[in-house]
Amino acid sequence: MSAAGIGISKGGPLSTAKEELTRLIQDQPDDSSAEEIVRELAFHVMVDRGLADSDARRIVSNEETARRIRSWRS
Q: Could you tell me the sign of the dihedral formed by the alpha carbons of 14, 19, 24, 29, in that order?
């Protein structure tokens, strides 16, 4: 898996980042704008990063998140 977290999805665990991003672009509707395609690619990378963080236990509980937000209001 690359630093961007791309690699494990429909393309299979051995897909390269280029192959995975190419597949994502090809899956977009023909009338998609450049902005829509970039947004979809960014979303995919962010989801993969979040899943990798979760797998590595780099998470913050809901309770801790609520405590942090309350501290901002003080």
A: negative
